[in-house]
Amino acid sequence: xxxxxxxxxxxxxxxxxxxxxxxxxxxxxxxxxxxxxxxxxxxxxxxxxxxxxxxxxxxxxxxxxxxxxxxxxxxxxxxxxxxxxxxxxxxxxxxxxxxxxxxxxxxxxxxxxxxxxxxxxxxxxxxxxxxxxxxxxxxxxxxxxxxxxxxxxxxxxxxxxxxxxxxxxxxxxxxxxxxxxxxxxxxxxxxxxxxxxxxxxxxxxxxxxxxxxxxxxxxxxxxxxxxxxxxxxxxxxxxxxxxxxxxxxxxxxxxxxxxxxxxxxxxxxxxxxxxxxxxxxxxxxxxxxxxxxxxxxxxxxxxxxxxxxxxxxxxxxxxxxxxxxxxxxxxxxx
Length: 334
Fold this sequence. Notes:
Order of helices and strands: EHEHHEHEHEHEHEEHEEHEEHEEHH
Number of strands: 14
Structural class: alpha/beta
Strand order of the largest sheet: 3-2-1-4-5-7-11
Distance between the termini: 32 Å
Radius of gyration: 19 Å
Largest sheet: 7 strands, parallel
């Protein structure tokens, strides 16, 4: 894992959407490695968005907060010019059905990604762009996720299949699928050296003050939940995800896509592990659906290993650290 070092000394990099969950960890690890980080946010004057960033080790000396908006063309030009690396993490993460899919998810994801890439194409200093994509852009490829399926970097989601995995997530899945597709096309046409990180559901400690959508997938099992979802997800620790971004930038031979998942588990397994970790608490013992559980597919780790991730942080550790983070932030009542 990327530890404190001088690897990034004298180098300037940009992290878009820096107040987000993965991005906050990315900023933290980049600062520990000696990089100067330009962190873009929509409103650098909003303490809820930036206070946790300015408190990070090294922030006082090497963190620059910059205003940029995904839907405003050219607004990333100043942040990107002069950087050797850009980490584009900014993209709305909303799983709710109560949104306008086009306006709230698809447009900011696709247009925003292209706006950042246009700024990268103008840059005279950029060496590599690392895009935060999602396993969502891998898994909805029109084939059922059966127990003999192994998802890897050669699998691409297709727009017509994006509502098959989980209907209430369909707009988010489509937004990530279209954004990654648009990014690869633009990068190829404009000769931008790009790598994409495709993590499964990301959990672990929360740096930002607000709840994010991926750790909420664990929080739903607390505070009196009566049932657990009949769902199977890949899971990965946020530190492994942030570290993979840095390795994808630093390792010269890194290229293409990288799927990241420590394991794939049904919610029944997650609940069982929570019971073992917190034996005095009540967790739901019934599935929300009566039909048989969805089969557990697999996500390949082979290419992730080329980023130096020999062993992912175990799921049990990720789960415990997520819950401890909930306790610190008073999101659970025990």
